[in-house]
Give the backbone structure.
Amino acid sequence: MTMRTLFFYLLGASTMLAVAGCGSKGETTKAPTAAIQKAATASGDGQTATVGTALVNPLRVLVTLDSAVQAGDTVAWAASAPGASVNPAKSVTDASGIATTMWTLGTTVGAESATATLTGAVGSPVSFSATASATPVPLIAQTATASGDAQTATVATALANPLRVLVTLSGTPQAGDTVTWGTTGTGASASPVKAVTDASGIATTTWTLGQAAGTQSATATLAGAGGSPVSFTAVANAGAATQLGVAAGDGQTGSPSTALATQLAAKASDAFGNGVSGVAVTWQVTGGTGSVNPTSGSTDASGLAKTTLTLGATPGAVTVTATSAGLTGSPATFHATIAAAATTAAVSVGDNFFKSGHNASQNPAVDTVAAGGTVTWTWTGSNSHSVQSTGTPSFTSSTTKTTGTYQFTFNTAGTFTYDCAVHGALMTGTIVVR
């Protein structure tokens, strides 16, 4: 090789190197970048479920690299609400570039969020939202028809129709729930005490009424259910009359020839003591002197038959019987006493009245004394009044005055009337002397 040839060889090589160097000057190579986003369809975003439960649909993200789906990338999942969780916490994208997880909501009602993170990826983290709703509770109520409410039967007997309740959850009949039945009152019961709802959400029981006549109640309870307890009522009627007894008016004492203040009352009852109406009762004075009015009658809604006893004129014991055929305790016997007439009586003279100090009767003030008894009138008002005898027999009248007292002793039996000479019929009284 000649020197000239070598020179041109070297010159060509250097030129090629220079050209090569010029061609790469200022250029850099850029690596492709991954991107993460919610899956275009069925991403699982925006769902609603009950607190503490898993969402129906999984969360789904798509990972791409230069717009091409990217398999094999690891996505980290997280849920922030108290009690919330994701499963799995990490998932690898499949051949379609999709990574998934299941989200279980937390324990607080309201909005919640979850994230999908791919380190270094565009769009990371991806956010998802969901709403946690309150846990639905069952509802219990009387069935719309044939609930068994408001029936009527005799005490201590079972109602003809069972009690029925319906249990629903979110409007759907709920099977398998245990309903507890309760009753009130002596002798009342439910059978069964616990009943399980059937496929239609219905639970039933048979109610046997208690022993007391009147309105009774029962309940159906389902723990934690809205509308619990459910109330039922029934009316219990008295049974057939089995007994007769003294109810009121026994053991009174009164003045001769006067009606006792309290009527005598006999009660017809069933086997449990409930009053029975419409039972015939006959009254009779069987000892001493006196009379009854009425002498017969029927018991009222409370099972009571009543009569008024007017005492005779002779002091002493009086007996009266109440009779109803076939009843235990019949005849029922009442006792009364005719007291000896008082030997004194006191009457107030007020503005404008006469008032008995013994029985508080006024205008007329009525008092009874024995023959030889003394009545004392005492002026208590501020106006002028007198004690003026009227009618026959008569007694000596007082003067007209504003204060003081007036006495008169009645030695002769009879009924004496009087008024005030100033006020006439506005102020009256009667003295019965025996």
In short: Residues 1-27 have pLDDT under 50 and may be disordered.
